[in-house]
Amino acid sequence: MATYIYTARNSSGKKIRGEIEAKDERDALNSLKPESFTITSLKEKKSSPALSNKKVKFLKPRIKGRDIIIFSREFSTLINAGLPMIQSLNIMIAQTQNSSLKEVITRVKEDVEQGLSLSEALSKHPKVFPSLFYNMVKAGEMAGVLDIILSRLANYLEYIENINQRMKTAMRYPLFVMCVAGGITAVLVFFILPQMKALFSESLGAELPIFTQIILNISIFLKENFYFVPLIIFGVLLIYYLLKKSEKGGYFLDAAKIKLPLMGKFFHKVALSRFARTLATLSNSGVPILDALEMTGKTAGNKVIEKAINESRASLREGETIANPLKKYSVFPPMVTNMISVGEETAALDEMLNKIADFYDQEVNRLVESIASLIEPVLIVFLGVTVGIIVVAMYLPYFSMFQHI
């Protein structure tokens, strides 16, 4: 929609100026006809270049997962109440506080007004509404249960948000302790140890102990070649990014991630829970099973699981079962494949997948609690050893100090 500035004269000849929103100039003229105005001028209102969308794009708020969850839940309530689609979208535009999401919903409404279905309008914004979202909406439109599908979407997105939050919670404390350990070590190595050399070597003419000298040499090297550190970090991140983007590299990293000693089980169970919940939600919402498997693979977040799901699609297309190809991959425990097999035989696949997801949700909760209780002492020991090495290097020279006084 564009804004037009018009100048007109009313029936009494009085000059009037105003603004009107319309799709184009013809639509603006048609909207003004009932007013019995004689239009003398009609121009589109131009936004200030300094405030154009391209210039201030970086200032716009980011659309978060929580915003989409609220949108889905509220939109579902409006549709369930029997309100027309356009009216529901207008209410959502008025209620949405996130300006970026408000702009997207406005564009969706304009597309729906022009004759597109809601799913087609949503598919134009894949960064906000991914393929899983608009495909489920499409299934809801076809089955006439859009409100139910939107409610399920809200529940599913909330579930994914909770999983992501658990992962952040599990990683937050270790990262904090690592940063503290790094900061303390840097202060001791770069600022305290060099003073030891000045005191012993230059003032007393004594040689530093070998251990202290080694730590000091490392300190001097890092100080003189400090640019190596960010270069090494950047290089590692770049290699990781390139590996992640490549098919073989991504598969290798995801396979390695679920085999990590402490966090491997956590990543593994989260991936299985997400796989089961996504497939159950899509299948239960009326999405064809082959399409549901394809979307589940793309959103699984693990290349090993994605490859197994793709083989299941091929197997299902040839008239076989979903479970058999999954049994070839150790990432799927026997309990999962057996329950899927039973679900296929009894036509209760959705129910079985939901039970799998519920089981692994509980497992993830237990793991988060056990990791939180285990990781604290491990990190304290790590912090103590790291700082202890530096402190020992600092105090070793004091044992030989009196020999040189």
Shape: flat
Helices and strands, in order, run as EEHEHHHHHHHHHHHHHHHH
Number of helices: 17
Total discrete domains: 3
Give the structure's gist in a few sentences:
With 405 residues, the chain is mainly alpha-helical. It has 17 helices and three strands.
What does this structure look like?
With 405 residues, the chain is mainly α. It is built from 17 helices and 3 strands. The protein has helices at 25-32, 53-56, 65-80, 85-95, 99-113, 118-122, 131-143, 146-203, 210-224, 228-245, 247-257, 264-284, 289-299, 303-317, 323-326, 334-345, 349-399; strands at 2-9, 15-22, 38-44. The protein has a 3-stranded antiparallel β-sheet. Strand 1 (2-9) and strand 2 form a beta hairpin. It is flat, with a radius of gyration of 31 Å. The model is unreliable at 48-56 (pLDDT under 50).
Explain the layout of strands and helices:
Elements: E1 2-9, E2 15-22, H1 25-32, E3 38-44, H2 53-56, H3 65-80, H4 85-95, H5 99-113, H6 118-122, H7 131-143, H8 146-203, H9 210-224, H10 228-245, H11 247-257, H12 264-284, H13 289-299, H14 303-317, H15 323-326, H16 334-345, H17 349-399
Antiparallel strand pairs: 1-2, 1-3
Structural key phrases:
three-stranded antiparallel sheet, 3 domains, Receptor-associated Protein, mainly alpha, 405 residues
